[in-house]
Give the backbone structure.
Amino acid sequence: MAATATPAGYYGRHIFFCLNDRKNGEDSCAHHDAQSGFDRCKSRVKQEGLSGPGKVRVNKAGCLDRCAGGPVAVVYPEAVWYTFVDADDIDEIVESHLKKGEVVERLLLPPDVGR
């Protein structure tokens, strides 16, 4: 009888970008151009050949309840939370974390930042 391996997840990593837009005037990630970060990440992941089964999935998310640090993104399965400002930050997350598995310390969202 042949040994069977435990099946791995369909993707190696997910990165979720909060794209929530609060209509009541409260601050939210959409007010900090989170969509541009999402678009840049999705594009770079494809360019780098990192997308697809066993690799990386870039996902939109609703509120992740960490608005005070917005815009925010979180990488699973590591549960690493990032904040970002521009395309260079996204490029660094893609190159370091999504490609090489190295956390980008300077972009970490402090653990006490919430809504």
About this structure: Residues 1-7 have pLDDT under 50 and may be disordered. The CA atoms of residues 102 and 110 lie 17 Å apart. Residues 34-47 form the longest helix (14 residues). The chain has one domain: 13-107.
